[in-house]
Amino acid sequence: MKYTYFIETELGTIGISETDGSITELFLTKNRQKTTGGSQTPMLKEAEKQITEYLSGQRREFDLPLAAEGTAFQKSVWAALRKIPYGETRSYKQIAEMIGNPNASRAVGMANNKNPLLIVTPCHRVIGADGKLVGYAAGLAIKERLLKLERANKEEKTDAR
Fold first, then answer.
1. Is the whole-model pTM more than 0.85?
2. CATH class belonging to 72-160
3. Which of 77, 132, 137, 150 satisfies CB 3.0 to 4.6 Å to 87 for a cystine?
């Protein structure tokens, strides 16, 4: 059975869905009137905790069972995205090379666009070859905020050493 729970964050309302003990969707919603609460299972409670920790700069990696639906190609791209280190970025071409298909930059972009697990599968860490921010389902302003959050916390941790 599918359960969805909504949380309020500084980014806006985030919806988290779970099916059979795995997180299947994480999305930002613009319709605040119809997105309060929901059914919160223990897994959704843990996902909320980890997302809150991430947004406050206390978490760099997620430890959640994920079960996003997609093609084999999309899943390979999403797995590669989860390998991009916190606070770093990669180009679409670099992701294509990571999955062993160096000519698939456009297809990588399309897979990014279909990513159902925003933030947890960090498609916000993928940028244009020229270093510019391009495309993000939640909007470029959110992408920029996530990248700034990660850079600030990465530098903070590095400076503390």
1. yes
2. mainly alpha
3. 150
